[in-house]
Every structure is written in C-alpha cells, then in structure tokens.
Prior knowledge:
Largest sheet: 5 strands, mixed
Number of helices: 2
Structural class: mainly beta
Number of strands: 25
Shape: globular
Amino acid sequence: MTNPADTVAAAVTAAGAATFEARKVSTGYSWPECPRWHENTFWFTDMYTGTLKTLDSDGNAAVVIDANGRAADTDVPITLGGFGWLPDGRLIVVSMHEKLVLVHGGGGPADLSVYADIGPYCPAAANDMVVDSDGRAYITQLGFDLFKGEEPRPAPLIVVEPDATVGTPEKVDPLLCANGIAISADGAKVYVAEVMASKITVLDRAADGSLSNQRIFATCPFMPDGIGLDADGGVWAALPGGGYIVRLTEEGITDAVPLPLESGIASACLLGGPDRSTLYLTAGYEVFDFEKSAREALGGIWVADVAHRGGTTRP
C-alpha cells in the first residue's frame, strides 16, 4: 500500500511547487482546528477540550468559550467546530455532536445559548462553518459516524439564514464528508473540501446567498481537511496524513508547506497576521480517542511565511 506522505511529496515535486518552512509557535492542545484571524488576533478551537481560544504574539492561549458546562444536559461529546462572527459582532460556533449552532452572549466563557438547531438536517456530526457578510452561515457535515467506522455517505450543506432559519441549498448536491469551507474575497464563490472524494468543490454564490453551479475546482493528492483562501484565487488545504499543506489552483499545486508527520497531523490552515501573509497551521496527533487527545495535549500551532495574502477572504 502506498504511503500517503510519499504520494503527496511526489505530487509536490512533480508540480515544481514553491516550498515554505513551518515553525511551531505554541503547543499544549488536544486537536486544534478551525483557525481564524479576526480583529488582529488568531483564534482556534481546541476541539476535545470543548473550548475556543485565542493566541497572543508570545504563543500564550486564552479561553474565550468553554462549552463544557453543557455536558450535564446531553449524552454526546462537547466538541466545538467551525465558528464566525455575525454582523452585530456576536460569535457563533458549531457544537458538532449536539448538532447545534451556539451563540456567545459576550459574558464569560460559558455564556452560551442555542442560536440554531441543525439536527433535522444533520445525520451525524456537524463540522466546519463560514459566515458571510450578511450573517448567513454555511455549515459542512460528515454525513456518517466517522468515529464508529461507518461507511462514508454524502450529506448536504446546511445553511443558517441571517434570521436563524435552517435549510439546505436547493441547487447543491450532497457532498462526501464535507469539511473546510471558505468564501472568496468578492463573495461570489464558496469552496468546500470533500474529504473522502479528495477534491475541492467550488460553488457560485449569488447576492442573496443562494448557491449553484457545483463543480470541481481541484483534485488533491490526498484527503483535504481544513482550507483557507488567498486573494489571488488559490485554495490552501491541509492534507492530514499527507505531511503537507498545499496551495491549489485549477492548474494544480503551486505552493507547499511540509509538516512531517512526527511533528503532527495538519488539520487546517488559514492566512492571518497583520497583512494576512502568515499561514497558520493547526496540527494534532490523536483525532479518534477524544480523552487521550485532551489528556496528552500534544497538538500545536505552526506558522509559515508565504508569498500570498488572505485579503478579505472568509473565514
């Protein structure tokens, strides 16, 4: 059986991609995910601790949201996924296994309430999310119980409208283990990583937020997880188990950041920093054993200085 890391390395070499070195800036997390750059600050979820955190310039983390108090009222794990900000400044976040979108009230870390119930459209865990400038949230979902070894099956994107009503886009077919999701700087396109299909799918987005014209943007040499965009039309994708983060265009791989598997399994990436030219990488070691991941806390945040900027892309 071919080693995925060898496959990705060969694809990067064949493409003649420019490569950039990553350096670790912080550690001590379970499975860090969903990086964001907001108000000159780096944000991320520390998934298996049920928290959402920020990171200062010295690599010190602070807890913004702690959802663990919700555990008393449910029998599912409290795991936070994608998050974003509404036009009024409120922070919303996906509680993956509760199949809810929660809103932070602006008080302490536990100041949370239900913003939207996405359960009727969500057969298994919800996943990542991007929020548009109108406050509309596009949410990806696994579609099957990955953690119990179920066979993959497609599931629809979920849309939470600005009035918090929930539905699915009429002109978009179900996606195969949809994960990272992002919106172009002009708001005209939405990009989604389909993990089990090893591809990035792109959708046209109209002014009213509706989606259409589903098509392949790029194929990946291994399964893509979290993604981020740059202002030049590239999609940066973490390839868990592949040992790289790659930049993709419709022509193929153009740039790459190696992250050897002994340094962690890259889960997501995003362009941040003052001019959004710093590629932030989240990486962990244990994704299936939640308790072990939280207890060992080996996950880390890495950065690489690259040749593209994020501009006003979302998230």
